[in-house]
Specification:
Length: about 240
């Protein structure tokens, strides 16, 4: 059942008019005292249903269409898609509009990059590159560490340090501090080269040797060290240097 907020606010006007037509609907099961935004502030995002979260994201009245229906149609569409849908796919939903479709697709992709990689299994260097390649456009070097479990499934992905334009300073204790808390069995490390060149420097080789030595002492496998740009990467594993 969908509850409504009525447009006849003035009691005098309410007596003169028929107030059965709703001004706009609230998501199913949400009354005036429990709107999604209020519940989000009070209880956090995990307390909200999928439809309530979408109602906050859309935050729009749709001419000629019940917003609750729009949210339900969007939710059904997202559940049917095996991957993040395209703007074109979402734009076919009547009342959604291209602008909202852009925002939703961008939000889904950003969320996937930041929090949706947990559980992904790393089978080869390409998997590492696919996971962190969105950092390639940064103007400063990012040194990134992937914590893995015994099955080489991702537990967490973290930026360990942010360096200068063409170099970053890294110490083993900074790299392994969080993987130890994660109870990680293995790690992959990577950093971008803003220049676009992926060949390792002498400093890169020295850092990799230090990390490998530290990993051996800690009993954590250093799976690979990737140097990457937008379109290519260098793998220490493939090069036979790990």
């Amino acid at each position: 059942m969908i509850e409504y907020v009525y447009s006849c606010i003035n009691p005098v006007e309410a007596a003169k008019q028929d107030c059965q037509a709703p001004a706009f609907p609230l998501p199913r099961g949400i009354g005036a005292a429990g709107r999604p935004r209020d519940r989000l502030l009070e209880a956090g995002p995990t307390a909200l249903s999928d439809q309530e979260l979408l109602s906050i994201l859309l935050n729009a009245r749709v001419s000629g269409k019940n917003s609750g229906i729009l949210e339900e149609e969007l939710l059904n569409k997202l559940e049917q898609e095996p991957a993040i849908p395209s703007v074109k796919d979402l734009s076919v939903i009547a009342g959604l509009g291209e602008s909202k479709a852009f925002a939703i697709v961008a939000m889904l992709e950003f969320g996937r990059r930041k929090w949706g990689v947990a559980g992904t299994r790393i089978k080869n260097p390409q998997d590492i590159f696919n996971t962190i390649r969105h950092y390639a456009d940064r103007r400063q070097e990012r040194f990134i560490c992937l914590s893995l479990n015994g099955a080489h499934e991702i537990l967490a992905v973290r930026v360990v340090t942010i360096g200068l334009v063409n170099r970053t300073i890294i110490h083993p204790r900074e790299v392994f501090a969080d993987p130890l808390l994660d109870r990680a069995s293995a790690v992959c490390v990577a950093h971008n080269h803003p220049s676009g060149q992926v060949q390792p420097s002498q400093e890169d080789d020295e850092i990799t040797k230090r990390l490998k030595s530290a990993a051996d002492i800690l009993g954590i496998q250093l799976v690979d060290h990737i140097i990457f740009s937008n379109s290519q990467y260098y793998s220490y594993l493939i090069a036979g240097k790990i």
